[in-house]
Specification:
2 domains, Rossmann fold, disordered N terminus, globular, six-stranded mixed β-sheet
């Protein structure tokens, strides 16, 4: 099958931004290259991923699990007007007969969120079941239910993937796609099957109506993994990075536990997923203000003086306020050093993988979900004046 070059990562799901959390996780930009920052609002990248979870789509779900972090990492070094944008990902499933028929067999798994561990958690919880796939209706729900940015300068995009005709269901796909683009939301369609079936099933037409790209993939094809010399050290540094998180408040313990679970989930699907997740964790896209004190303090989400002693780990409860501040600053520096090393290794790794990929014959390249999303994400963000590496 011919490969669509516009295809070349939930991701989900995601992804986005610089090498460390703003306000304290460090920045590798040389002083002579520091961008001029304007006083406007922080730019946003909002991505809604709509996945067909009917019985034949187990391969699609596996690809989403495997390549979420690669998709997110497409935005590791993004800026706009000198600012690092906030990345948010939403997840929907549709076409699963285990869902409510009254809702069109559609479920909002996650609204737009910057909690990437939660995105990963929900992807790994997905199961498939036979059903009716209503593309127009799920697009309409995504457009109407999510808190999309009102700014025309932000990148707002829907990716919908499935294999049945785009025309099914009570909501006309043309109306749904037109409603999306009227709000500045691009709709990209990914047909799981042949190019001709996708065109005949109106997947291409849906994308054209919403200024999007049409793609087709083999949802059952295994993602190609290139083992790189840097992978082992990056995996070790990812574990070291976890030691720089300071849980606080009601969500602290659960956040630490879920971080570890999602590390394990990445391990189960692909060695490459482990590395890509580590790269995400070494970037500003990976924000955990809700449970990690380092992110929360450095992003001005909370102030140490406003926290109650019981909100803090036992060791910090015994510290004075000044000692607490010094402790957070020390851990911030430790995290920045580990993140910087991961990014250095990843730069070397990308060169290695590019060389290995070039050795593949065109017919051997994988037409998979991540390949379908990466180049489109890149090109559409650039068209909105986002600056990508």
């Amino acid at each position: 099958m011919s490969i669509v070059k516009t295809l070349v990562a939930l991701a989900f799901v995601v992804l986005l931004v610089g090498q460390s959390a703003p306000g304290g996780d460090g920045d590798n930009t040389a002083a002579t290259e520091t961008p001029v920052v304007d006083d406007g609002p922080t730019p946003q990248i909002q991505i809604a991923i709509l996945l067909d979870t009917s019985g034949s789509m187990s391969g699609l779900i596996e690809q989403a699990k495997t390549q979420l972090w690669r998709i997110v990492n497409e935005f590791v070094n993004v800026t706009k007007n000198g600012k690092r944008p906030v990345l948010q990902i939403a997840l929907f499933e549709y076409g699963n007969s285990g869902l409510e028929s009254s809702a069109g067999w559609i479920r909002v798994i996650l609204p737009l969120t910057d909690d990437l561990d939660k995105v990963s958690q929900e992807l790994f919880a997905l199961t498939t079941n036979g059903g009716d796939e209503y593309c127009g209706q799920v697009i309409s729900v995504a457009v109407g239910s999510l808190e999309w940015s009102a700014s025309k300068d932000d990148y707002k995009v829907i990716f919908i993937a499935g294999n049945e005709p785009f025309t099914q269901g009570p909501v006309n796909y043309a109306d749904a796609c037109k409603a999306a683009i009227e709000k500045g939301i691009i709709v990209n369609t990914i047909h799981c099957g042949s190019d001709s079936d996708g065109i005949n099933g109106k997947w291409k037409d849906g994308a054209l109506l919403a200024d999007g790209s049409y793609m087709w993939i083999d949802q059952n094809r295994k993602v190609v993994h290139f083992a790189a010399p840097q992978d082992d050290e990056i995996a070790k540094l990812s574990a070291e990075l976890n030691t720089t998180y300071i849980p606080y408040g009601e969500r602290g313990v659960a956040g630490v536990e879920n971080q570890s679970v999602q590390d394990d989930n990445a391990t189960t699907v692909s060695p490459g997923s482990v590395t890509e997740r580590a790269v995400t964790k070494a970037s500003a896209n990976y924000r955990n203000d809700a449970w990690d004190l380092v992110d929360a303090v450095n992003n001005d989400t909370v102030k140490l003086e406003d926290l109650k002693p019981e909100d803090l780990p036992d060791a910090m409860q015994k510290m004075t306020l000044d000692e607490q501040r010094k402790h957070v600053a020390t851990v911030t520096q430790q995290r920045a050093a580990v993140q910087e090393r991961i990014q250095e290794l990843n730069d070397e790794r990308k060169v290695f993988i590019a060389e290995e990929r070039a050795k593949l014959a065109e017919s051997d390249e994988a037409d998979t979900l991540d390949e379908a999303m990466q180049e489109v994400l890149h090109d559409q963000a650039k068209a909105l004046d986002f600056e990508l590496e």
